[in-house]
Amino acid sequence: MAHPTTPADPWLPSWFRHPTRLELGSGHHLRPLRALDLDLDLPAVRGSREHLWSCFGEAWGWPPAELAAADDLCDLQRQEREMAERLSFSYALFDEAESELLGCVYLDPPRGGTGEADVDVTWWVVDALRGGAVDDLLGAAVVTWVRRCWPFTRPRFVGLDLSWRDWARLP
Question: Are 167 and 59 in contact (CB under 8 A)?
């Protein structure tokens, strides 16, 4: 996934430490996405590729039609590095045992600069969960979590506040 992650100004206050876990109350949780999650991430992304492309394809060119394991590993390594550097934040949605990756949540510097928003929040769930209870629970939890636990004052929840297409067309 190729998205810009180099804000010109400090993006987060120096005192802020990002959350390391969010319990959804359904036996699911979010935690930082890691390169070690490759074996769980790859089937989730490949299995939901058509939907993911409809959301992220125009903006990020992701995921490609043929996502190779090596390319997914590079993406995961980059996301892990960006999280350590506080440039962007990627979380994975897991079942309780972390036996299956069920989706992801991304917090990125806003497309189009910081005029309308100070963070772009995007998320997805695997096709098997789309439109169901876990999808609804995740969406509601992410909105509350970002508003309560992150220092942003103008979060933009892509797909809620702005359509995917309009978001992708921002510079």
Answer: yes
